[in-house]
Design goal:
- This protein has four helices and four strands; from the N terminus they run βαββαααβ.
- The chain has a four-stranded antiparallel beta sheet.
- The protein has one domain (2-90): Alpha-Beta Plaits.
- With 99 residues, it is of the alpha+beta class.
- Helix content is 33%, strand content 34%.
- A hairpin with a 5-residue loop joins β2 (35-42) and β3.
């Protein structure tokens, strides 16, 4: 499994632009073979974290390289964000409990 962790701080006044950027990326992920999950979290300090899970690096590449996702990739990051960080991680071990 491969995890993509995107952490961003959206500049004030650009929240709608950010949502317009996230929606196509999420839609493409939902239709990508090997996509597992997409979650979003907002910290009390205003940082947003998005977690995307894929079955493989090939599935991640299919999502990343999809033309419909190109607008997300080429967004004017300096205009939208005061900070961002992207990490791509291989999951070494995973545990789960569901009641």
């Amino acid at each position: 499994m491969v995890m993509v962790i995107l952490r961003v701080r959206v500049r004030p006044g650009h929240e709608r632009d950010f949502e317009a950027m996230v929606e196509p990326a999420h839609s493409v992920a939902l239709s990508t073979r090997g996509f597992i999950a997409f979650d979003r979290y907002l910290s009390p300090e205003g940082e947003e974290a998005m977690l995307l899970e894929f079955e493989s690096h090939e599935a991640l590449a299919a999502w990343r390289d999809d033309p419909a996702n190109a607008a997300t990739q080429s967004a004017d990051r300096d205009r939208l964000f005061s900070a961002y960080r992207i990490q791509v991680c291989d999951v070494v071990r995973a545990y789960e409990f569901t009641e």
